[in-house]
Each structure stands twice: as C-alpha cells, then as structure tokens.
Amino acid sequence: MTIRDDHDLAADLATAAGESLLKLRADLGFEHPPALRAEGDRASHVFLMESLARLRPSDSVLSEEATREERENPRRQQAQRVWIVDPLDGTREFAEEGRADWAVHVALWERGSLVAGAVALPAQGRCLGTAAPVPLRRFEGGRFRIAVSRTRPPEFVQKLAYLLGADLVPIGSAGAKIAAVLTGEVEAYVHAGGQYEWDSAAPVAVAQAAGAHASRIDGSELTYNQVDPTLPDILVSLPELAPSLLAGIRDLHR
C-alpha cells in the first residue's frame, strides 16, 4: 500500500458511490423524497462500508450512517488509520429534482492528521480530491462571497458579512460549500451552528491540499477521530482572506 493508493482509493470510492446515487435518483424519481433520501443514505453507506472492509480490512471507519455502537467502538478511537465518510452529504438537495449541491465524502485520517480525501459532486460531474489538488485562484480584491446554508443562514454569518462587506451565497451541502471555495464560486465558508466530523473531513482534506485555509472560527486546528465526533464550527477560505475573517469573528464575539 502506498500513499498514492489512498488518494486514488478515496477518489474512486467517492466517484463510484456518486454514480450509484445518480442511478438511484433516475430509478426512483422524486415523487417520494423521504424514501429517496433514506435509500440513498443506506445504499451509499453499504457500498462504502463493504468496499473499505474488502480493500482496507485493517482500517477503521467512521460513517454518518453508522449506529451509535459502531461510532463509539473503542477500536476506532485507538486506531492509527480511520476512514471518515459521509455517504450522502446533502440528503435534502439529493431528493430535489434539478439540484446539484450534494456530495459524497471519503477521507482518511492517520495518526492525528487528514492525509487523503475526495469530495464527489455527482450531479456536477466532478470529483475534487487530494490525488490532484485543485489550483487555487487568488483573491483580486473587492467584495467577496461567503457560502451559507440555503435554508437557514445563521444570524452570526449575516452579521459577519455586513461587517466585512461580503455577499452571502446560499448553497446546499457542506461539501458543496467547501468545493465552491475551491472552484471559485465563493471565497469563504463560515459555519457556527455545529456539524459532525463526516460533514467536513473530506472537504477539509481537499481544501488543505489545495492550499486553502481551514480552521475553527477562533483560528484553532480542526481535529478528527475524536471520541465525540461533533465539530462546533468551521472556517474555510482563500488564505489571503483568513486574517480579515478571523479578525471580524473576534470583533463579533467581544
């Protein structure tokens, strides 16, 4: 096994899971969104778990769709290699016809760090991964854009945008928001409403490989494979905007 194998495996699994989700969408249609969401979560989870059990039998896995007992398994917390996956990030968007802002996340955490990852955006026909980091563009000045939830933009981020003279751009899943930072649709993503490790592990791995800034909103490091998989907040941005974003956040918390 090589490091390159892990990068490629993350991309291959995320892409394959995404292709199966596109087929599921076509087969089931959009008449019953709850059923489509449930089957999408289930089928993608089973595919990823079975694939990793076969291809990386010695590694542990943390999945959004795992049971509470599986998440709390001491083997994961003691493991040196843990795959952190979100089989379907953005179930709401997945079950809405015409929406493309949903994703599949596959990341590898090893000995304290994210070392590989991929974010498949199946309905957009692309996969961003650490195997081939995205060329990050530079911010040329002027107003910048912050990705926010399309259904519940947090008041905190609205205040931050007003303070910094930024525009808010509603986007669906967390993976789609961070991907938008890397592809130039927005310049930053700020979230302070709580998430889980699987919501950001793969997107953060991809963002860091591209040279983007990724941290907690107080500037501290994002940590993964914790006993409690919750993450209270996150900031991902073009690196040159991080100082002003962090300063603005500090001002709002005074």
From TrEMBL:
CDD domains: CysQ. Its cofactor is Mg(2+). It comes from the Bacteria. Gene3D superfamilies: 3.40.190.80, Fructose-1,6-Bisphosphatase, subunit A, domain 1. Mg(2+) binds at residues 64, 86, 88-89, 199. Its EC number is 3.1.3.25. Keywords: Hydrolase, Magnesium, Metal-binding. It catalyses: a myo-inositol phosphate + H2O = myo-inositol + phosphate. The keyword Magnesium applies. GO terms for molecular function: 3'(2'),5'-bisphosphate nucleotidase activity; inositol monophosphate phosphatase activity; metal ion binding. InterPro entries: CysQ/Inositol_MonoPase, Inositol_monophosphatase-like, Inositol_monophosphatase_CS. GO terms for biological process: 3'-phosphoadenosine 5'-phosphosulfate metabolic process; phosphatidylinositol phosphate biosynthetic process; sulfate assimilation. This is inositol-phosphate phosphatase. The lineage of its organism: Bacteria, Bacillati, Actinomycetota, Actinomycetes, Streptosporangiales.
